[in-house]
């Protein structure tokens, strides 16, 4: 729990939502080998696994440690069938809402097969980040090899191909399950030396991080966000559709205005999908206001610096500035 601050755990991420379900999944799967004739743990574990996939599709990687733990082919088949139920139920709901094609593309095809090929998405860790992560998880090499190592490796895949510390939150939870096993090595001199070095490394980095982060407001819910929200509510009628250009979603979540549909972050791995910019422009034809943030300096596909050419040209030729919402954000109104 303490180190979660270092892994950006004080914010709202899909990865954080995975942790309780993942720990329950590991617990139920661990009971399968002890109760071979009882398929109850298999069914419960399968429903947990299916729920993990619904939350974050890359949770599919957990099928590897789950299959290794279950072993029995018949039980594994039951596990896969039951795990499909949450996905099937959600798919039926989207079908009834008549948006199943959009759900299937954006929830399955795009994240699993398209994301990594689009510009700007891949972000490998820096050398310092890689060394820090390997050092943090280094005690795992002292632990006798068991299934938790496979769960840990599966969790580490979450940080590929776009690295961010919060992607490692599930790995930290699994790593915590492994730590009690280190007690069996506590009397060995090499381990004592390693433990002192490891403790100093963790403590030093936590203190350095705490000085900058502990007293900061929660990310996405700071004072600047609240100021912009209030300014929007004063300037735009409730439930009006607004396009947020180069502006993150936290500025309309919790406010009285709505984003146009489809809502798409100004990220190249979304807006470089063929035809998507043109679709957004078709919605802008009937949209009165745009919340606009100027592009930041940087490479063409960097976050904040990216300017989707078709949308950018349309906004600059069809809208004008009407209000300064903050130092870095303005409200645009459609030119009549």
Notable traits:
336 residues; alpha/beta; five-stranded mixed sheet; 13 helices; globular
Short description:
The protein has 336 residues and is an alpha/beta fold.
Description:
With 336 residues, the protein is α/β, with parallel strands linked by helices. The chain has 13 helices and five strands. The chain has helices at residues 14-30, 40-55, 63-70, 73-96, 100-114, 127-136, 147-156, 169-178, 189-213, 223-235, 268-271, 276-284, 309-318, and strands spanning 241-245, 258-259, 289-292, 319-326, 329-334. It has a five-stranded mixed β-sheet. The longest helix has 25 residues, at 189-213. The protein is globular, with a radius of gyration of 24 Å. The mean pLDDT is 87.
How many β-strand stretches?
5
Helical proportion, percent range: 40-55%
Major sheet attributes: 5 strands, mixed
The ordered string of helix (H) and strand (E) elements is HHHHHHHHHHEEHHEHEE
β content, as a range?
Answer: 5-15%
Poorly predicted runs are none
Give Rg in angstroms: 24 Å
């Amino acid at each position: 729990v303490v180190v979660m601050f270092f892994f950006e755990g004080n914010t709202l991420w899909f990865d954080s939502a995975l942790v309780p379900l993942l720990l329950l999944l590991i617990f139920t799967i661990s009971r399968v080998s002890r109760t071979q004739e009882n398929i109850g743990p298999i069914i419960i574990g399968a429903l947990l696994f299916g729920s993990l996939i619904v939350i974050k599709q890359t949770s599919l990687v957990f099928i590897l440690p789950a299959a290794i733990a279950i072993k029995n082919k018949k039980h594994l088949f039951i596990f896969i069938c039951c795990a499909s139920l949450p996905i099937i139920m959600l798919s039926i709901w989207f079908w009834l809402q008549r948006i199943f094609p959009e759900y299937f593309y954006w929830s399955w095809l795009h994240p699993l097969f398209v994301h990594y090929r689009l510009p700007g998405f891949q972000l490998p860790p820096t050398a310092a980040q890689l060394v820090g992560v390997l050092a943090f998880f280094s005690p795992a090499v002292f632990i006798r090899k068991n299934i938790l190592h496979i769960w840990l490796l599966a969790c580490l895949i979450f940080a590929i191909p776009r690295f961010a510390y919060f992607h490692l939150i599930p790995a930290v939870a699994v790593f915590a399950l492994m730590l009690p096993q280190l007690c069996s090595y506590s009397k060995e001199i090499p381990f004592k030396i390693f433990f002192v070095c490891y403790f100093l490394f963790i403590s030093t980095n936590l203190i350095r991080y705490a000085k900058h982060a502990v007293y900061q407001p929660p990310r996405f819910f700071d004072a600047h966000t609240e100021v912009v929200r209030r300014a929007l509510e004063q300037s735009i009628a409730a439930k009006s559709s607004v396009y947020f250009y180069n502006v993150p979603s936290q500025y309309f979540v919790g406010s009285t205005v709505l984003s146009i549909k489809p809502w798409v972050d100004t990220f190249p791995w979304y807006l470089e999908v063929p035809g998507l910019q043109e679709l957004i422009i078709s919605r802008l034809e009937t949209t009165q206001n745009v919340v606009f943030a100027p592009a930041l300096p940087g490479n063409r596909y960097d976050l904040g610096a990216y300017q989707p050419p078709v949308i950018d040209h349309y906004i600059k030729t069809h809208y004008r500035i009407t209000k300064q919402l903050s130092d870095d954000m303005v409200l645009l109104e459609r030119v009549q």
